Amino acid sequence: MITHTLFDRAEEAAAYVRERVGAAPKIAVVLGSGLNPLADRLEEAVAIDYAEIPHFPATTVEGHRGRLVVGLLGATRVLMYQGRFHHYEGHDLDVVTFPIRVLQRLGARSLILTAATGGIRDDLRPGDVVIISDHLNLLGKNPLFGPNDPRLGVRFLDLGSVYSPRMRGFAVEEATILDIDIKAGVYACLPGPSYETPAEIRMLRTLGADVVGMSTVPEAIVARHAGLEVLALALVTNAAAGATDAPITHDEVVAAGLEAAPRLGSLIECVVMRLDIDSEPAPPPP
Ligand code: HPA
What we know:
By secondary structure, the protein is α/β, with parallel strands linked by helices.
């Protein structure tokens, strides 16, 4: 019987992408809600709809375009995923993280994740950019669950340092140069799709969370499994539930993303440039 493994599916998808764009960039970016316009910064861009890539599911979320774009960000070639997959869309976590597996097969080394989040910590305001320093996986699931293929990564993955200190350092330094007020914090990942209750936000605060969202964590875990270096930037799009009487809406989340996209775009461009010129290689796969 011919078995079509995750490894094979990722290889097939990567082969198709290579056919369309040539050698793949070493640096990739995942664009979250409202942040899709960041891909418009790419010059000499080649875009591929997810629907064209073998084994890619379709995105169903408004504000997520569903395209892979390769092009020049400044002087550096970058791959951007314009739109991601979420567990709440009904996808299993191996589907949610499939684009990250493809990055590994393409030979990428560094990954920048972006995400819209609710701000839990008192000093966080809509529009703030938070460098994720660590996370709480509250999905009740792990994307590495199931048989492990050693070609994709190790069985028991260390998560002591998911978010690269080197890349976080670049982000802090470049934000300072750009005069962007940057903060750091712990991201709590919940399955959604409903936003949290005020009681859940009180619980998350007690657990040590600073921002809350419905993505990023499965991708970060799989990226580390795949040996990629990871930076995750959370954009605070709204105050978390209970802070005000106003309801949280997806429109507000997308609008805040669109408003912040130019600032976040400049920051990402500068971090990418630093990655490109820094001679220190990305750490070896775990
Ligand atoms: N909660 C969860 N996910 C989110 C939020 C929020 O308040 N804002 C943007 N994504």
